[in-house]
Amino acid sequence: MAPSRQAKSSKTVRRVLTGLVACACLLAGLPSAKAQAPAKQPPAAPQATPQVAPQAAPQAVPGFWDPRRRPERPDLSRLTVIRFLTETDYPPFNYTGADGNPAGFNVDLARALCEEIKVTCTVQMRRFETLVDALSSNRGDAIIASMAVSPQLRVRVDFTDPYYRVPARFASRKDAVMPEIRPEYLEGKKVGVIAGSAHEAYLKAMFTDAELHPYPNDDAMRAALRKGEVDFIFGDAISLAFWINGTDSGDCCAFSGGPFVESRFFGEGIGIAVRKGNDVLRQALNWALFRVWEKGRYTDLWLRYFSVSPF
């Protein structure tokens, strides 16, 4: 069974997360799922102040670590090398650099974790669908490849805590940006969405008075927004962030409202996979992830790779 990944349904996504505000961006502090602002994975998180329109907002760097829950430093003496596996072509998370070596957000994060743990680190690139088999057959120690945590994959591998999530967001034309979106605000509004997607299911469950317009793919949905055929589109915020900031959008559009992150619809987040039962490595990586975030290195990486924040 090939592993699934958030937002891997579109080829557009494949072509094209803390120290700034420690507590404000924590998972528990993100908005809740039903009003604007459905929160990140925990469905019952408290409501936070709505996000303002992106033109006026500073770059948002999410954090998924609670400074009040500092992990204890595990015994790292048994770790001498970590062989990371990643995929070949999922920019900006994974890609081949100009020098022919692995590059991208995931690769730089893996190297930062190894520096924190003080072990040798290697990164091997493979096709995404081969990664779990390679890990299971001991051709690597950990997978860092934007792999979505799922019940199906938990049967085969263990995961670290999430190091980022893939929120959903609304986008609108720039002359119609709304700083906050609630179900009642979209009554009678035309909303484009990918047919059969988790985003469509979420809108049907939570935005029952909106007029949904399903499209077969991202390109058709985004074109409808550019032409004014719909008032909003709703989809994977990472993909949308790159589209908004890229040439294909024609500078037409911007995010409206904040992130929607209900785990029942949008998954448990993105984690690092290790072999089943490898608690030594999993705990070491969890500790190192917290340290990298606490020192601000995670923030630096996020700002380097995401000029328009999905959050």
TrEMBL record:
Residues 36-72 are annotated as: Disordered. Residues 1-35 form the signal peptide. InterPro entries: Solute-binding_3/MltF_N. Residues 81-309 form the Solute-binding protein family 3/N-terminal domain. Residues 46-62 have a biased composition (Low complexity). Pfam families: SBP_bac_3. This is Transporter substrate-binding domain-containing protein. It comes from Bradyrhizobium barranii.
